[in-house]
Design goal:
α3 (137-147) packs parallel to α6 (190-196), α10 packs across α12 (400-410) and α12 (400-410) packs across α14. This protein folds into two domains: 3-236, 2-Layer Sandwich (Nucleotidyltransferase, domain 5); 247-416 and 441-471, ATPase, nucleotide binding domain (Nucleotidyltransferase, domain 5, 2-Layer Sandwich), CATH 3.30.420.40. Helices cover 34% and strands 21% of the residues. The chain is an alpha+beta fold. Belongs to the FGGY kinase family.
C-alpha cells in the first residue's frame, strides 16, 4: 500500500463525545461513513463538580473502535493519532489505579493559594502561559492532596494512551495545558511543581513530538488491523483545531466553536512575542506554540437554548444580525482565566414582551460573537496586524446565521473551513507534518450587519462590566 493510499485512525477525546474516525493520509480528510461516536454525559454537582466516569469513557471510546472494526474500517491503517480536551486530571494510587473520576475543565473545585509577596505571577504567566487558576493542576493538585493521598496524577489522554500502549506518557502539547510546563524548555517547570506540591516523577513523562508507541498485547487480538501501527502522542484540541482549520501561521487567527469556543494563533515558540496578561499560551508540538483566548459558552450555549426554547430551527429565523434590542451576556458556564466569573452568571438585559424565542437565541449568539471578538482584537495588537480569520468546528458548521454574525462582528472577511472534524484533522497534521487548507466558503461582512453590531458594542461592553461585578457580589 502506497503512502497516498494509507489511512489514519484518529481518536477525538471530547467533553460531550468520544469519537473514532478514519482519515485519508494524503490530506487528512475523513473517509465517508468511517466514524463512530460515543455520547458523553458529564456529571455536574451543586458543589461545582464536572466529572466523567473514566471506565465508561474508555470503554465507550474502545466500543467506537469495535464498530469501525466490524465495518471493515480498520484495514490499512498507517497511523493512530489523538486529539484531546485539555486540562483534565485524575488522581492515581501507587499502582496507577484511578482514585477519582476524570475532573474536567468545567469543574470549579480547587483551593486558593497564598504564596506570599515573593511569588511573581506575571513572570509565572510569561513562563508557563497560564495563571494560578482553578483550571490548572497548580490548584487542582493541592485540592486533591488536601482530601486524599494520591501517589500520582495524569490527564484523560495520558490514561487512554496508557491503555492503548502500556506506557503512561504525555505530549508537550497536553502537558502545556496543565499549567506546569515551562514553554521555552518543554519540560516541567520547577516553580509550578513546587506550587502544586509534587515532583516531576508523579506526573506523566513528557515525550517528544516524534515519539510513537504501539498497541499493547492486550488489544492486538481485539483489533488485529492495528498491530504494529505507530501510536502518536496526543495533541491538545485547541492546538489541533487551529491546525485542522488551516490556521497555522502567525498571520491567521482560527476561531473554533465546539462545546466551548476560542480564538488562537499558531506561531513558532522561538522568538514568540511577549505574552499579554489576558491571553494564554500552550504548545502545539516541539517547535510551535498557540496563543489565544477561550470562552466557556459557545456550542453548548447554542444547543442549550435551542432545547430550552424548543426551537424547531437551530437558526434565529427572521432576526437581523445586530437587530435585537435584548443583550445577552453569555456567562452561563462562567469565564475562563484570568477572569473568575463563576458558572450560573449568564444575564439577559432589556427583555420585553415583543421578544421572541428567535430574538433570545440571536442575542445569545451575538453575545458569544462579541466575546470572541475581544480576544481577536488583543491578538491583532500582539501580532501587529489585522489577522486573517478562518472559522471551524461543529458550532460553525451548525449555523449559517452565526457564521455571518461572527464575520460582521469581526468586520473583516472570513474563510469557513469545509471540514467540520478539525480536531482530528489537526492531530493528524501535527503528527504527520501535513498542511491542510480550509477549502471552504469565503464570507464578506455585510455593511448593514457590521453597522448594527458596531452600534450595540458599547452597550454590550457596559452591561458586561455590570455582569462581572454582579458575579462577585
Amino acid at each position: 500500500m502506497t503512502r497516498t493510499d494509507a489511512r489514519i485512525l484518529a481518536l477525538d477525546l471530547g467533553t460531550s463525545s468520544a469519537r473514532a474516525l478514519v482519515l485519508h493520509e494524503a490530506d487528512a480528510s475523513p473517509i465517508p461513513g468511517a466514524l463512530a461516536r460515543h455520547k458523553i454525559s458529564p456529571t455536574y454537582g451543586h458543589d461545582g463538580s464536572a466529572t466523567l466516569d473514566l471506565h465508561e469513557y474508555v470503554e465507550g471510546l474502545f466500543g467506537c473502535l469495535d464498530e469501525l472494526q466490524q465495518n471493515g474500517h480498520l484495514d490499512g491503517i498507517g497511523s493512530l493519532v489523538l486529539s484531546t480536551q485539555w486540562h483534565s486530571i485524575v488522581a492515581l494510587d501507587n499502582k496507577g489505579t484511578a482514585r477519582t473520576p476524570v475532573i474536567t475543565w468545567a469543574d470549579t473545585r480547587s483551593v486558593d493559594l497564598d504564596l506570599g509577596t515573593s511569588f511573581d505571577e506575571q513572570a509565572f504567566h510569561a513562563r508557563t502561559g497560564t495563571w494560578l487558576h482553578r483550571l490548572y493542576w497548580t490548584r487542582r493538585i493541592p485540592w486533591l492532596l488536601a482530601s486524599d493521598s494520591p501517589a500520582a496524577f495524569a490527564g484523560l489522554p495520558d490514561l487512554v494512551l496508557e491503555r492503548l500502549t502500556g506506557e503512561r506518557v504525555t505530549s508537550v502539547s497536553v502537558a502545556s495545558g496543565t499549567g506546569t510546563l515551562d514553554l521555552a524548555t518543554g519540560a516541567y517547570d520547577d516553580e509550578a511543581l513546587a506550587v502544586a506540591g509534587v515532583t516531576a516523577d508523579q506526573l506523566p513523562a513528557i515525550v517528544p513530538t516524534g515519539w510513537t508507541g504501539t498497541l499493547s498485547k492486550e488489544y492486538e487480538r481485539r483489533w488485529p488491523g492495528l498491530v504494529g501501527v505507530p501510536v502518536h502522542p496526543p495533541t491538545g484540541d485547541g492546538a489541533a483545531s487551529n491546525v485542522g482549520t488551516g490556521g497555522y501561521d502567525a498571520g491567521t487567527a482560527a476561531v473554533t466553536v465546539g462545546t466551548s469556543a476560542a480564538v488562537r494563533v499558531v506561531h513558532p515558540i522561538e522568538y514568540a512575542p511577549e505574552l499579554p496578561w489576558e491571553l494564554w499560551r500552550y504548545r502545539v508540538d516541539d517547535k510551535r506554540a498557540v496563543t489565544g483566548m477561550a470562552f466557556s459558552a459557545a456550542g453548548n450555549l447554542h444547543a442549550w437554548l435551542t432545547g430550552v426554547l424548543r426551537l424547531k430551527s437551530a437558526e434565529p429565523l427572521g432576526v437581523e444580525i445586530g437587530g435585537t434590542h435584548a443583550i445577552a451576556i453569555p456567562f452561563m458556564a462562567g469565564t475562563r482565566p484570568p477572569a473568575n466569573v463563576p458558572g450560573g452568571s449568564g444575564v439577559y438585559f432589556g427583555l420585553s414582551f415583543d421578544d421572541s424565542s428567535a430574538d433570545l437565541l440571536a442575542a445569545a449568539l451575538q453575545g458569544a460573537s462579541l466575546e470572541i471578538d475581544r480576544g481577536l482584537r488583543v491578538l491583532d495588537e500582539l501580532f501587529g496586524q489585522k489577522l486573517e480569520v478562518v472559522l471551524g468546528g461543529g458550532g460553525i458548521d451548525a449555523s449559517e446565521w452565526w457564521r455571518r454574525c461572527l464575520t460582521a462582528t469581526f468586520a473583516r472577511p472570513t474563510t469557513v473551513c469545509a471540514e467540520p472534524e478539525v480536531g482530528a484533522r489537526g492531530a493528524a497534521a501535527v503528527a504527520l507534518g501535513l498542511s491542510p487548507e480550509p477549502g471552504g466558503d469565503h464570507l464578506t461582512p455585510a455593511a448593514d450587519d457590521v453597522a448594527r453590531i458596531a452600534g450595540l458594542r458599547g452597550r454590550y461592553e457596559g452591561l458586561r462590566e455590570l455582569a462581572v461585578q454582579a458575579s462577585s457580589m
